[in-house]
Amino acid sequence: MIKPLEIQIRFSDIDLMGHVNNSIYLNYFESGRMHYLVSLLGIDWDWRKNGIILKTNEIEYFKPVFLGENPIVKVYLDFIGTKSFTLAYELTVNDEVKTTGKSVLVSFDFKENITKELDEKFRLALQKLETK
Predict the structure, then answer these.
(1) Number of domains in the chain
(2) Strand-pair category, 96-109 with 5-6
(3) Does residue 51 form part of some domain?
């Protein structure tokens, strides 16, 4: 099991209301996504040949997160297809769910500039994630 990503809230993440701005959660989810993918695939993965592009993001906010709190991001596999997959995110503070989200990602070859079927090693790595 991969250790969830611990987020350090920056002062610039906070809005005038005193909580993390809604747009910042996408950054937290992206950081969590890369933390998990690098843990699964290694730092030397060829992202240009076997990369991913973002198709869709969804976020649902339940409670605000404030400066000084210690949120963590957990990433789950929600769906896996031939060329795309969906990751689910859960941001918690002290085991209380504050925000959830999902991203649809598409396998992409940046060298050829085309979508492609998921690389078999990538697919096997994704299947190691917990499901939601």
Answers:
(1) 1
(2) unpaired
(3) yes
* Dist. CA 75–CA 81, nearest whole Å: 18
Q: Is the pLDDT of residue 112 over 90?
A: yes
CATH number at residue 18: 3.10.129.10
> What does pTM read for this prediction?
0.95
The pLDDT of residue 1 is above 90: no
What is the spatial distance between Cα 61 and Cα 54, in angstroms, rounded to a whole number? 20
Split at pLDDT 50, 70, 90, the class of 40 is very high
Tell me which residue has tokens 């005038």.
Answer: 16
The rounded distance, in Å, linking the Cα atoms of 83 and 49 is: 14
Residue 36: domain span? 5-126
Amino acid at 83: K
φ, ψ for residue 61, nearest 5 deg: -100, 130
d(CA 1, CA 82): 25
Is the confidence at residue 132, as pLDDT, over 90? no
In a domain, 65, yes or no: yes
